[in-house]
Each structure stands twice: as C-alpha cells, then as structure tokens.
Amino acid sequence: MPNGITAIANRKPLSGLASSDTTPFDAAVLPIVTPLRIGDLVVDPPILQAPMAGYTNYAFRQIVRAYGGAGLLATEMVNARGFIWMDREQAEHPDRLWGVADEPRPLAVQIWDNDPETLAAVGARLTHEYKVSVVDINFGCPVRQVTEKAHSGSYLLRTPDRMGQIIERVVAACHPTPVTAKTRLGCSRDKINIIDVAQIVEGAGAAALTVHGRTAADMFRGQASWDLISTIKPHLKRIPLIGNGDLDTAEKVVEAFRRWNVDGVMIARASLGKPWLFQQAAAALRGEPIPPDPTLEEERELMVEHFRLVCERFGEERGAVLMRKFACCYAQGRPGAREFRKHVVGIETAAEFFDVVEQWFPRSVV
Ligand SMILES: Cc1cc2nc3c(=O)[nH]c(=O)nc-3n(C[C@H](O)[C@H](O)[C@H](O)COP(=O)(O)O)c2cc1C
C-alpha cells in the first residue's frame, strides 16, 4: 500500500474546514444489512467498487482501498482474446492486469469475450496463477467495439443460453474461485429480459449477479431503474443480487438497501472524483456519522499522490496523459472546476501537472 495515499486517506479533516460537516445518519431508518457472500468470499461491507475501463487501474484501486469501505474491488475489463494473444506472441500480459498479482485481496478481475473456451482459459489463469478472489464476466458493455464488432458484452443479452454456456464453462475452469456476471436489464427498453437472464446465470453456476439498471440501448441516458432491479430478487434462489446505477451519495446507498431488495450495491462513476464515497457509504450503513469529504487541500495532495502512482507504472509522459481525466473527475462540482479542467487537459509533463494543480485546482474559501 503506498504510504502517501494511506496517510492522506487516514488523516483527520483539517480543523475548522470540514469536520463540522460530519453528518449524523438516522439509525432508525437503517435496513438490516448483512455481509454479502460470493461463493466462500465474504464481502463486507456489501458495497462493491465497479469495474471501469480506463479508470479502475491499480493506482485508483489503491486509493479506494486506502479510504476503505468497499468490500470488493474490481479491475477494468480485460479482453480475454487479447490476453491469450499477448501471452503467446509477446510473453506479456495486458496493462489492465497491472498490480493484480501482488495487491491485497479481495479483488475481482473482469473479463470479456463471447467464446466459452477463451474465457475459461483466461479464467483458469486468473484463478491459478494470479489467485484472484473473483472472476467476473462482462455481459453489460454497450460500446460498439465490444458489441457489434466482437459480439460480446451486452450483445450476449440477445442469447441468454450462450451466456449460460459461457458461465458453465468458466465456472468449471475457475473452481473453487467464484465466477460472477455483470449485466444490464436487457438490450433495449422493449426487450427487457433480465428475469430470464438472472435464472440462467444462476442455473449455470454463477456465484453472484450484478445488474446495472439500464438497458444497452440506454447507454448512460436517463435514470437507472431500481424498481426493475428489485423485481429480480424473488427469482433468484441461491445467489446474491448486486444493484448498480446512479448511486452517488452515502444516503442513496442506504436507500438502495432499504427500498430495492438487493444484497449488495456497486458504485462506479461517482467514485471517480470521490474515492472516499465507499468509506462514507459504509459508515452510513453502520448507522455512524458520515465522514466529511476531504478538504480541497487534502484533495490536491491526493491528486499529486495519484499522479505519482500512475507515473511509477507508465512513466511521466503516459502518466500525464492518463492523469488528465482523473484530475477532471476530482475537480468535478468544485468551484472553479471549469478553469482547472481547461488547463489540466493539456498537461504533458509532471512539472506542468504540479503547476496547473498549484495554480488552478480550487481552493477552500475560508
Ligand atoms: C468510463 C466507464 C467505464 C466503464 N467500464 C466498465 C467495464 O470495464 N466493465 C463493466 O462491467 N462496466 C463498466 N462500466 C459501467 C459501470 O461499471 C457501471 O455499471 C455504470 O457506470 C453504472 O454505474 P454508476 O451509475 O454508478 O456509474 C463503465 C462505466 C464508465 C462510466
């Protein structure tokens, strides 16, 4: 665990700036939330960090882990075919597996493809070589590159039986490591088939099902339908249901457990600019006061540490490019974010990054 990040995550809020914002949560409305079981793995608290391509790499995961509150972390989706090809041709593994071999557990690695054998071969490697905690299969990605071009991700919602074949094969290859599935409600609003899909996923031996409450055609438009997510649970006999979509505050996480019949929740976009959100949500679930957001000064330090971590792996040039989008996330919703974004999207070196952060990252108004 990188020391700088841990120190920042564990720091008490600077006096007078944010500590008074600590919000007590009304324990009287708390649902009964128990740890989630994915096979033999206990996910406690039952709040999962979502896989996000281009974002949930080792650096981001270390920050989430340092703050705490996420019961299970996930990598970016890894292309199974690419893994096999790289392994054979270049004796290398995908960048998206950066850190996976050595970082703390529990950790899920998500894989995608449409071929049961390819997915099973990669699942077996992840199980036996990398010793990951969970192998997750992507049945939800709506991006053309994955759907139309590779007939994978959410494209497979058209053929639930194929999903079942894939899961059965991967489960057999990964035993005893649990295999999970992440998907959407259906291909489009007029083709919602999540109940059928859920039963097939369970019947094929998956250990948990995560559902993002949108269809593939929705992409990210509109709101996630938690009412539809809640209809799934009565159709599952054995495995937990993890709901996902639009959770961006600790209060909404509590609400999801209270109202929507889920065993766990998964948070994606909101955590990019607020990796401490899991910690806040976990406190709220325990009925404890919600820890305040870090001050802007602390956030600035966190960004600098994040950048150092990224550079350690990718070098300064690639690290700077990669960091642009994370920096934009950190600034989101802050006063002066637009100005900061305008400058940070052009940085090419560490010196430029530090300079832009120093000059343009919003400061607290005291
Ligand atoms: C930039 C980005 C990348 C994503 N990459 C993945 C991915 O690799 N695998 C996956 O299953 N979902 C991926 N998702 C979807 C999220 O995991 C999640 O299902 C979705 O964003 C809804 O949750 P949210 O409202 O909390 O963001 C991605 C989403 C975003 C915004």
TrEMBL record:
Domain (DUS-like FMN-binding) ranges: 49-359
Repeat as UniProt keyword: no
Gene Ontology molecular function: any one: flavin adenine dinucleotide binding
Residues binding FMN: P51, M52, A53, Q110, K182, H212, A268, R269
Transmembrane spans: none
Active site positions: C141 (proton donor)
InterPro entries (alphabetical): Aldolase_TIM (IPR013785), DUS-like_FMN-bd (IPR035587), DUS_fam (IPR001269), DusB-like (IPR004652), tRNA-dHydroUridine_Synthase_C (IPR024036), tRNA_hU_synthase_CS (IPR018517)
Cofactor (UniProt): FMN
SUPFAM superfamilies documented for this protein: FMN-linked oxidoreductases (SSF51395)
Top-level EC class: oxidoreductase
Keyword terms: Flavoprotein, FMN, NADP, Nucleotide-binding, Oxidoreductase, RNA-binding, tRNA processing, tRNA-binding
Job of this protein: Catalyzes the synthesis of 5,6-dihydrouridine (D), a modified base found in the D-loop of most tRNAs, via the reduction of the C5-C6 double bond in target uridines.
Family as reported in the entry's similarity comment: Belongs to the dus family.
This protein's name: tRNA-dihydrouridine synthase
Source species: Botrimarina mediterranea
